[in-house]
């Protein structure tokens, strides 16, 4: 153990400066409450960016992790293991998929999905069928391939040349997609709800039209459910409420409840294009991560938790609407289960970062999706008491900001 005090200053001393974390250093969590080094309490509406699906220190997840830790941690994919086999069975039984590829993150799951889409087109048509269409303001990860497919140019700047054969069209604009798609398109990639892009839900008619266009052009439809999956929207996966089934689905974040794991799900005939040696990962599907993910699915995939998501969504939205009546701070409030975005109104626009920084002073953890949208992705089992307390603290935050501006 080092004698150096482990505070925020150490980050600037030893870390690559691609992040700018808050001054407080959380050290303990319980449910949807977190305490920092100074003992200050926070209500966690951030959920580790839609990761802590069952909050902090959930007994079933702790139990699964510690039980597996006493057995075997890592084998590599030279061998399989019992927890990953159980997890594969669960995911294929609960979804449209026949086959699963396990990895460590959402970016890795998307990387695998995009590679599979091109390989499948190569195997079944020819090498000219390689174009990928994504949507403006989408987000699919930070690897070079996934950041190129993502529809936010700011994340690609400085990393050229980026992979070719990728185009972006406006979200929820089917006419734009009709003009862009062709028989050279191997895949269309979309989020059911654009999370990083501002919590923008896909229009149901748009989703169905995308599916039809993919079928017409023999292109795969990939759903990036890294942020919307594992109960976040009130269904286990968002596609289940949309009347559309994708060909490939990616999932991560909530799947491990805080333990790193990701997965790509697809049908048997498509999966065959990733034969032996075509893709791989050292840690993907390791026993520790798989054991925790099994416990997550066993807990989340129940009628009680799914119904709770919808009732808690209503409470969040009602409290935000009440705050808006008082302060006129939100232009729009959008939600898909417990993925919630509150778009800022003038003169608050551009001040999302300042609001979440001030909110920490009042003991509530929030996120932003760009400078103009406050984003909330709390635990699915957050209590009504915690929701109300966090909203009270958000209200106090806005009062303080208004007072400081006068």
UniProtKB/TrEMBL annotation:
Pathway(s) served: Amino-acid biosynthesis; L-arginine biosynthesis; N(2)-acetyl-L-ornithine from L-glutamate: step 4/4
Pfam families: Aminotran_3
Subcellular location: Cytoplasm
Keyword hit for Amino-acid biosynthesis: yes
Reaction catalysed by this enzyme: N(2)-acetyl-L-ornithine + 2-oxoglutarate = N-acetyl-L-glutamate 5-semialdehyde + L-glutamate
Gene Ontology cellular component list: cytoplasm
GO molecular function terms attached to this record: identical protein binding; N2-acetyl-L-ornithine:2-oxoglutarate 5-aminotransferase activity; pyridoxal phosphate binding
InterPro entries membership: Ac/SucOrn_transaminase_bac, AcOrn/SuccOrn_fam, Aminotrans_3, Aminotrans_3_PPA_site, Class-III_PLP-dep_AT, PyrdxlP-dep_Trfase, PyrdxlP-dep_Trfase_major, PyrdxlP-dep_Trfase_small
Gene3D superfamilies in the cross-refs: Aspartate Aminotransferase, domain 1, Type I PLP-dependent aspartate aminotransferase-like (Major domain)
Keyword Magnesium: no
Cofactor stoichiometry and binding remark: Binds 1 pyridoxal phosphate per subunit.
Class in the EC hierarchy, top level: transferase
Record-listed N6-(pyridoxal phosphate)lysine modification sites: 253
EC numbers on record: 2.6.1.11
Residues annotated for pyridoxal 5'-phosphate binding in this entry: 106-107, 139, 224-227, 282
Binding site for N(2)-acetyl-L-ornithine: 142, 281
CC cofactor: pyridoxal 5'-phosphate
Biological process annotations from GO: L-arginine biosynthetic process
Alphabetized UniProt keyword annotations: Amino-acid biosynthesis, Aminotransferase, Arginine biosynthesis, Cytoplasm, Pyridoxal phosphate, Transferase
Family: Belongs to the class-III pyridoxal-phosphate-dependent aminotransferase family. ArgD subfamily.
PANTHER family: AMINOTRANSFERASE CLASS III, SUCCINYLORNITHINE TRANSAMINASE
Additional information: May also have succinyldiaminopimelate aminotransferase activity, thus carrying out the corresponding step in lysine biosynthesis.
Quaternary context: Homodimer.
NCBIfam families named among the record's database cross-references: arg_catab_astC, argD, PRK01278.1, PRK05093.1, PRK12381.1
Name assigned to this protein: Acetylornithine aminotransferase
Gene: aruC
